[in-house]
Amino acid sequence: MARASLRAAATLRELAASQACGAAVVLRAGDHSFSRPRVLDMLGELSAARAARTTQSAVLMGTDGAEHGSLGSNMAKVARMDAAARAKHFQELANLMRSLGTLSDGGGWAPAVVALDGVLCGSAVGAALHAPFFVATERTRLCLPGPSHGCPPESLASHRLARLPHALGRYLALTGAALTGPECYALGLATHLCEAHALPQLADALGEGFSDGGEGGAAAGGEGERRLLWRVSRRLSDACVELPPLGGWGEEHALYYAPQVEAAFSRGSLPEASPLALSLTFAQLRAGLLHRSKVELLQAVETEARRRHETRAEVEDEAVARLVTPLF
């Protein structure tokens, strides 16, 4: 605990010194950078960045030598862990995903932007899918190698993968196939698409911050949060490119094979052949799909109750059944 406190204090001093260069703090992730020590460091860096009052965004980018490398955990090492070590590994990843997915942390407030250029595996996929903004490039590749190493996917984003069309989430988990940056954008996994050479300019643009005048700073809470999110999104969009038309997907793209993938899963031949890790993966995906459906159900019932000027408990069972049926 004392060593963690000293690490956090040192990180805070370094970040405080870096604030002079702008309102965006850049965190760096190298090859296999989601090991336990690095995850703890990133948690401390993110918390310290948000605690600095001038910080308006935290940008997670690859190191100069990791653009073409593999970003994520060392799965061979994770596969050799005992049960206790693996549980701790997944818990610390969950803490990082939760921190990336929320706007406030450590007493401060700033959205996270994940702009990773290279092969995103497992935990790096989770970092990208939990952050409010995920910027992909033409060199980005997204894959889930965990099941092939005997582990469920480390992304902790089954609710996102389960909602992909044409059973692509199951296809990715089963085969280890990769999605390209444009495909991630087309599927709604990435919020922005940027040319790889423009990533440094993207960080510089966010580093300029937002003045209290023209664009205005934003205080935490409600309208202030929405205003800052919109401004960060606009800055990112200025540095990004338009997506090519979907009809332009060639045979090298996974989306080209989407109809065949869906047909394969409808026959049930691939799921039957999956080992234990893949069975657990399917259970995760089903749970993620059901969880999202419950949320949608509650929202639909609330809407029905408001329409009838009733409480949620007074909505008839038949109405609930009618609302639920399209979700499954």
Automatic annotation (TrEMBL):
GO MF annotation terms: 3-hydroxyisobutyryl-CoA hydrolase activity
Name of protein: 3-hydroxyisobutyryl-CoA hydrolase
PANTHER family linked to this entry: 3-HYDROXYISOBUTYRYL-COA HYDROLASE, MITOCHONDRIAL, 3-HYDROXYISOBUTYRYL-COA HYDROLASE-RELATED
Residue ranges of every copy of the Enoyl-CoA hydratase/isomerase domain listed in the record: 58-209
Reaction equation(s) it catalyzes: 3-hydroxy-2-methylpropanoyl-CoA + H2O = 3-hydroxy-2-methylpropanoate + CoA + H(+)
EC numbers, comma separated: 3.1.2.4
One Gene Ontology biological process: L-valine catabolic process
InterPro entries noted in UniProt: ClpP/crotonase-like_dom_sf, ECH_dom, HIBYL-CoA-H
Pfam families per the UniProt record, alphabetical: ECH_2
Highest taxon of source: Eukaryota
Keywords, sorted A to Z: Hydrolase
